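User: Modeling request: complex.
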Amino acid sequence: MALTLGIVGGGQLARMMIAPAVELGIDVRVLAEEPGMSAALAEAATGDYRDLETVRAFARRVDVVTFDHEHVPQEVLRALVADGVAVHPGPDALQFAQDKLRMRARLAELGAPQPEWAEVSDAAQLRAFLDANGGRAVVKTPRGGYDGKGVRVVSHPDEVSDWFGDGPLLAEELVEFSRELAQQVARRPSGDLVVYPVVETVQRGGVCAEVIAPAPPGAPRLAEVAARIGTSIAEGLGVTGMLAVELFETTDERLLVNELAMRPHNSGHWGQDGAITGQFEQHVRAVLDLPLGDPSPRQPWTVMVNILGGPVSDTLESRFPAALAAHPEVKVHTYGKAPRPGRKVGHVNAVGDDLDAVVEGARAAAAFFAG
Amino acid sequence: MALTLGIVGGGQLARMMIAPAVELGIDVRVLAEEPGMSAALAEAATGDYRDLETVRAFARRVDVVTFDHEHVPQEVLRALVADGVAVHPGPDALQFAQDKLRMRARLAELGAPQPEWAEVSDAAQLRAFLDANGGRAVVKTPRGGYDGKGVRVVSHPDEVSDWFGDGPLLAEELVEFSRELAQQVARRPSGDLVVYPVVETVQRGGVCAEVIAPAPPGAPRLAEVAARIGTSIAEGLGVTGMLAVELFETTDERLLVNELAMRPHNSGHWGQDGAITGQFEQHVRAVLDLPLGDPSPRQPWTVMVNILGGPVSDTLESRFPAALAAHPEVKVHTYGKAPRPGRKVGHVNAVGDDLDAVVEGARAAAAFFAG
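Assistant: Request completed. Predicted assembly structure:
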């Protein structure tokens, strides 16, 4: 019978794996944190992903376990593997997405280009790092941060005094970058790998706002350098499924690794409508160890614009008629989430030959859902 | 909260509405004939679609009712409408897809081009039709036929003697056609309408085998004539949702209406990967009375090849690795159905600039699932 994919976590990334899995003929089951989440259509159980017995009971009913997020604890992941469950990405890879200090140390071993960094456990160590790096630094909690949370730009150790005492922190050079990029790679357990075009990501308030695929020209040999970084990290860390490498393009034209995500990632939403094989289908294929699809763009340009919840009194669905009528060529994706301010609740993709027109179309369509 | 689409029938057409609905942010519920059908992921109830109370209970839980097939009885449909349920397509339109005699009579009133036809209730009437039409005819039961069932080519009334006595039959001229085409149109309850490019359909054994979109050049002004026929039928019959008009292109370069389908149709599967807005998304938008999407092709050519069940001992999924590895550029869709001989269990779509290469790629990928 059909293969069954199990996804831990009921958010929009799980939701967006449903469509390509259904099209391929693959069954999907989701272990959601609570009933009625984004991926509720495929909800097979609800419970705490930190509880081994909850996850173990879910895993018995599927062929492969993958994830909507990177928060399942190592001890749960390792127990599943010991049970003989196929877990992709596996704990050996996921640890580097779960802990930013481990990531920095391992990337250093791999020779990946990254900002200056240090492990700092107290104010004196951070003071030393600040002194060595122009008096400013980005300080991160090694675990649990996302979308700008757990990250502070500081010029004095006092600014993170509340974070000390709970394990070491990661201090990073404040990189002078001209823009941010993301490089996605898909890798199967068998080792086969495909590389997506590097894309430009535009952040606002620590949250991804827009993506342009592929990234407009920048540093020399940008695409090749980014592809090589993505490939070496996917292979070096043993990632299975989708890997996103967030990159800084520096003002002196270097690429430096910012963050890693081992799952479908906001920077890859463009591919649902802009690539022959989008990241959600690719992730499904990769974690089931099926041959990977062609990651090539369908059109010269694709632009993705996120829809963030605003102080709206009406529902997202009430905006459909005007948005769809004005933009029959744009693809609207929404996640079935209540639009709280700043929350990612959907995105739009526009494709075409002319970048300016594509950007304009995507922004104009997304604007119908704003405020 | 999210709009909820209710689909009566749990087959692959319902299944393929799930993916675009999920992407748009629309909830989907299916009333399936039995548990575990193609659209099981969205199964909210199982039961007999001919039973008013079953359908009525289902309809209470959704915003709009649409269909995987055209078999829901008129009395059930009309009772729902009387209850105030939004039913698309509605009974006034669906009657013409449910009864081929009514269809022929209504198309005659609309002036649509069609084969010679007659209502025949006994052998003498069929004899007269045969004598007037070269001695051969296509005889159809007005109701319940599909994929070649309920259709016989006859040269003598005795060949349908078992069909007489159960109401009138439809006799049609045996058209000399050079090829078959299909014209799809989407229409909203508000009346807005979009027209897909006319496509060529290749039938084998009474079942659709391949579709080429758009149809290669043929009769003069083919696309315009087909579009006009499709539009006038959608408007004349008051169709809401997707309408497929199956057409003969005759050896003397006329277009004649063969059959109608008021739902997504096998001739439109190409659009999932080949059109900006495929028929499944378009049907969802149309029946919910949302603005329609752009039906334009993404690439010059798309070819769809059906996967039919064969005398296989292994499962369809066992064919994935070889097929996907050989054709990373082709999109494979399977329906989660057991592959009985001759049963439609999936299809592949290939897109590109060069028709010969696209045909070859689609056929080669589909061949991995044959036999």
